[in-house]
Amino acid sequence: MTIEELTSARYKVIADYPRSLYKVGHIIHVSENLEGFVFLTKDILKYPHIFKKMEWWEDRDEKNMPKYLKYINSDIIFKPYHINLEFGLYYETKQDYINDNKDALDITIPATKKEYDKFIKQNKNGK
User: Fold this and answer.
1) Same domain, 119 and 72
2) pTM for the model
3) β-pairing, 108-111 with 68-71?
């Protein structure tokens, strides 16, 4: 999946409502036009008891997770060894196989290989 696909706004229907087009548990992608009805973020935000804003990593297949992650409040970009959506991240190499808690996913965003390579190059050069 691309970074844009991973980070586009998604909402999960968590309660039923009159004339609902969607069943409880359905994930709405704000940018999609589903069944001729376009959901806009401002409309969804009016009803937090019906629509839960999802984190970029929630309800994803592990195979669709990004190869590189960036900490939100940092320039640090890393390559997790494994992402386990139930338990969290396993960092970089098998030797570092340290399980960080699931909260770590909350403070990261997907990054690209290009961003990762640039980060590695800058850090090798001491910048």
Assistant:
1) yes
2) 0.72
3) antiparallel
Distance CA 24, CA 36 (A): 19
| φ, ψ dihedrals at 64, nearest 5° | -95, 5
Clarify whether residues 81 and 117 are in a common domain.
yes
Which residues are within 8 A (CB) of 67 and not within 5 positions of it... i.e. 6 or more apart? Answer: 79, 113
Residues 41 and 14 in one domain: yes
Q: How far apart are CA 53 and CA 56, in angstroms?
A: 9
Q: How many residues does the chain have?
A: 127
The tens digit of pLDDT for each residue in 91-111 reads 554 444 444 545 567 788 999
Domain that holds residue 91: 62-124
